[in-house]
Each structure stands twice: as structure tokens, then as C-alpha cells.
Design a protein that fits this description.
- This protein has two domains: 2-215, Glycerate kinase, MOFRL-like N-terminal domain (Rossmann fold); 217-382, glycerate kinase, domain 1 (3-Layer(aba) Sandwich).
- With 383 residues, it is an alpha/beta fold.
- The strands form three sheets. The chain has a six-stranded mixed sheet, sandwiched between helices. Strands 3-4-5 form a three-stranded parallel sheet.
- Helix content is 37%, strand content 16%.
């Protein structure tokens, strides 16, 4: 997005002859792209923030404050920004934030609730970035699918829009997850203090903030469907967003997809974002666990008149704390696993989907993609 905005064509369209005085890009460096000299790249991490994430957040706040005297703060926002733009609130450390987010994710907390907590531990999220600027324009790529699709207050934890949630709401998320005792005391004390709430709807500091979603999971599904049709497949796109526990969602997707299959080769496509409740100490991510959860259902149709192949991948190329984007399963997976001495049930019990797929060569590794619209699930059915 940054390279596109700084292209000669965009400059002509926007009537911009000069580059902005200050700017930044926060995110894992992908490919060998070189940014314009006026944009500084911070190698911020995902899904947990690092020191570069905090440095990027502080530079963003400085840019917003500079823009208060004139000019426009342009924010190009994508999924993952919650970890890649991070400024801890007073009394909270970056490690406190990392521990809190990781504990909530491991407990299976959905993204909207997770970001509710993140916003109230931050000096940049929940509208605080835009509150410093005179005029803000946000162009967002969404990885938020529910409970409100493409909710600006949830995408990247909403640094440029009003926040309808409160510190009390964040405490409620923690209490429902049953993890209060596992969080840093400073976090609980900060939320209970509720001394400095995020900007709320109607806050005059956000009167000149505009927002537009320019891409989401539907765009990814359209691209996948076009590629499938070019290869001779009929396509069936499931519009409802995938959610819930990854292993259960994988089974449900296969069952639903098989009902779509007719007498032709079919490519069934879905997208969304699931959760994983961490029960063991294995390696994996939600897409890998989605694929592994689907395996038992695929095994019900291993041969005969149908050949099934499923892939589940993160569109950002990152699946949990691994170097894989996701995984592939088909009718041969279980037999090959037995030959390699790996067991699907054990892998599910230990959350070790990566350890299951790695010896089979069935992990999808395509590196960072520079975008994030959630997860994509594809089932090919050959008659």
C-alpha cells in the first residue's frame, strides 16, 4: 500500500508533487522492495509486537502531532496492525502487552474481544492516533469478519476511529476468559483505574477523520474463484465467514463443501478467521489445525468416485508462531502419516499440527505476502 501511494501515478492523481515530510511503514519486510527515502521501515513483528513495533508506534504518534499544525495524516491500515503499531499505556510495559495478548489468544478469545483489551492498554489504538492529528484519512484492508464485518473499530484495534468499548468491557473479556490470574498485575490495575478512556463516538478530536475499507476477504475469494475457473473447475463460494474453534470449523467446512459438489470438478472456497484453544505444547497455527481437524472427514471419502484435496492458509503468509502459511490434506495424508510415524489425534491433542505436517512435506510456505485479509479455505473435489 505504501509503494502504491508513493507511485508516480498516485502522486499525479492526488496532486502531490512533494513527498510527506515524515512517514513510516511498520511490518515484516517482504521481498526486496525499497521504500521512498522519506518513508522509514520498521521491521515490526506479528502476531506479537517487538521493540520495532513500539518504535513505529511512537513515530506514528509524532507524525500525527506534526500534522496537527497542517496537512493530512494518511494511514494505510491492514490486519496485523495491532501488533505492528504498539505504544504501551503509562504504567504498562511492552512485555506486559505481549503476555496479555498471548494469554488471551491461547484461551481462544476472538479478535474483537482481544482488540478490545489491546485498545485499553495502548496510547495509539482506539482512536488515539487520529485524536492527535488535524485531519486523518484511513484506507484499510480488513481481516475482521465478525461480529461486525470490516468493523473499523476492530481492524488494527482502530487507531483512527472512535472506540465504543470501555475499560470495564476489557475487564469483562478477561474475566469471561478466566485468565485474570495469569496476567501482569499492572494490566489489571490499569484497567480497573480507567482514568484515561479512549476517544468515544462524537469526540470532536475525530471530527475530521475519514475511513474507507479498500479490500477484504471477499476480494481474496474472488481471486481464488477466478483462478479455479481458469483451471476448469466449477466454483462454489461460501459467503458466510468461517469462525469458531479451528479443528471443528475444518470438519464443518468439508461437510458443507461436499454438499455443494455435483457432477463436475468443483472448487469450494470459504474464508474467515478461527481460533485455537491451546491445550498442549506442540507447534502450529489455526490454519494448520483447521486442515488437521478436517482430515477425519476427508478420510471418509478416500477413494472411489471422489478425490478430495483441502488447503487452509493465512493470506499474510503467517500462521501462528510458525514459518508456514497453512497446510494441505488429501486422501493420502493419513496413510503417509502412518508411514512417517506421526499421529493426527496426538497432534490435535498437543496442538502440534506443524509437527504432524512437516515430515509429510504438506506445509504451505510462501513467506510474507504484504497483505492480510484473514484466512482462505479451498476444497477441490474431482469426480
Amino acid at each position: 500500500m505504501a509503494l502504491a501511494l508513493e507511485s508516480d501515478e498516485s502522486r499525479r492523481m492526488l496532486g502531490r508533487e512533494a513527498a510527506p515530510a515524515r512517514g513510516l511503514v511498520a511490518g515484516p519486510r517482504v521481498g526486496g522492495e525499497e521504500l521512498p527515502h522519506d518513508l522509514r521501515w520498521f521491521d515490526a513483528s506479528h502476531p506479537s509486537p517487538n521493540a520495532a513495533s513500539e518504535a513505529a508506534g511512537r513515530r506514528a504518534l509524532a507524525c500525527a502531532a506534526d500534522g496537527a499544525a497542517g496537512g493530512v495524516l494518511v494511514v494505510l491500515l491492514s490486519g496485523g496492525a495491532s501488533s505492528m503499531l504498539a505504544v504501551p499505556a503509562a504504567g504498562i510495559s511492552l512485555s506486559d502487552k505481549v503476555q496479555t495478548a498471548r494469554t488471551l489468544m491461547n484461551a481462544g478469545v476472538a479478535i474483537a474481544d482481544l482488540n478490545c483489551v489491546r485498545k485499553h492498554l495502548s496510547d495509539v489504538k482506539g482512536g488515539r492516533l487520529a485524536a492527535l492529528a488535524r485531519h486523518t484519512v484511513t484506507l484499510a484492508i480488513s481481516d475482521v469478519h465478525g461480529p461486525v464485518a470490516d468493523d473499523p473499530a476492530v481492524i488494527g484495534s482502530g487507531p483512527t476511529v472512535a472506540d465504543p468499548t470501555t475499560c470495564a468491557d476489557a475487564l469483562g473479556v478477561i474475566e469471561r476468559a478466566g485468565v485474570a490470574g495469569a496476567l501482569p498485575p499492572a494490566v489489571i490495575a490499569h484497567l480497573r483505574g480507567a482514568a484515561d478512556e479512549t476517544p468515544k463516538p462524537g469526540d470532536p478530536r475525530l471530527a475530521n477523520a475519514t475511513y474507507e475499507v479498500i479490500g477484504n476477504r471477499h476480494l481474496a475469494m474472488e481471486g481464488a474463484a477466478g483462478a479455479a475457473r481458469a483451471r476448469g473447475y466449477h466454483t462454489s463460494v461460501i459467503e458466510a465467514a468461517t469462525d469458531g474453534e479451528a479443528r471443528d470449523a475444518g470438519r464443518a467446512f468439508v461437510e458443507h463443501a461436499l454438499r455443494q459438489a455435483g457432477g463436475h470438478p468443483v472448487c469450494v472456497i470459504a474464508s474467515g478467521e478461527t481460533t485455537v484453544r491451546v491445550r498442549g505444547s506442540g507447534r502450529g497455527g489455526r490454519n494448520q489445525e483447521f486442515a488437521l481437524g478436517a482430515l477425519a472427514t476427508i478420510d471418509l471419502h478416500p477413494h472411489g468416485d471422489r478425490c478430495l484435496v483441502l488447503a487452509s492458509v493465512g493470506t499474510d503468509g503467517i500462521d501462528g508462531p510458525t514459518d508456514a502459511a497453512g497446510a494441505i490434506v488429501d486422501a493420502t495424508t493419513s496413510a503417509r502419516a502412518r508411514e512417517r510415524g506421526v499421529d493426527a489425534e496426538h497432534a490435535l491433542t498437543s496442538n502440534g499440527a506443524y509437527d504432524f505436517f512437516e515430515p509429510l512435506g504438506d506445509l504451505v510456505k510462501w513467506g510474507g505476502t504484504g497483505t492480510n485479509v484473514g484466512d482462505l479455505h479451498v476444497l477441490l473435489v474431482r469426480q
